[in-house]
Amino acid sequence: MKLIEQLEKYQPVNEQEEKDKSFIISCLKQFDNIFSRENNLAHMTASAWVVNKTHDKVLMAYHNIYDSWSWLGGHADGETDLLSTAMREVEEESGIHNIHPVSDDIYSLEVLTVDGHIKRGEYVSSHLHLNVTYLIEADEAESLSIKPDENSGVKWFALDEAIKASSEKWFRDNIYNKLNEKLKYFR
Fold first, then answer.
1. Angstrom distance (rounded) from CA 131 to CA 23
2. Which residues pair with 118 in a beta bridge?
3. What keyword terms does UniProt attach to this protein (predicted)?
4. Which among 44, 90, 93, 179 could bridge 49 via Cys, Cβ 3.0 to 4.6 Å?
5. Which residues are registered as beta bridge partners of 154?
């Protein structure tokens, strides 16, 4: 499987990524339905750290379920090309179309806990998102639009302001700071 090959080549930047890489690969080998929400324990997701052309701003959406500003992304829903998933989610969640990956390589890895919640009137049990993140560049002059069933705002933030805008402490401290730090390798 192409994704397993990409994951095996990926060089973790810290212990979190090292352990999460191992866990994600294990799940990919163990579960046939890992790219589908039918797997109630864990499923593959893709996120995008969307930056402007000068890499000094990041695009975030106000995520209704989590009541927080956050990165863009979503479920694979059967798609095994997670870069395509990330690109699709950026377009759906922000309304922008002038986007491209800075690299086809994986930018970051995370195993994310998702608390039980109501989505489209139905209860979704707590589960894990096996998340692959890509670095995406976008034109910050392009018009933004919300996706009302998922977010209530889309906005460009200075890198440090993006972290402060999130109300999710674990994401601020462990994910968003890491993503911003990695940007220095792409300037």
1. 11
2. 123
3. Hydrolase
4. 179
5. 61
Give the predicted TM-score (pTM) of the model.
0.95
109: nearest Cα among 129, 90, 79: 129
Domain 2-186: give its CATH superfamily: Nucleoside Triphosphate Pyrophosphohydrolase (3.90.79.10)
151/72 Cα distance (integer angstroms):
10
Burial class (CB in 10 A: 0-12, 13-18, 19+), 62: middle
Q: Round to whole Å and give the CA distance between 68 and 56.
A: 21
Q: What DSSP string runs through 155-166?
A: EEEEHHHHHHH-
d(CA 28, CA 44): 9
Q: Could you read off the pLDDT of 135-168 as tens digits, one per residue?
A: 999 999 999 999 999 999 999 999 999 999 999 9
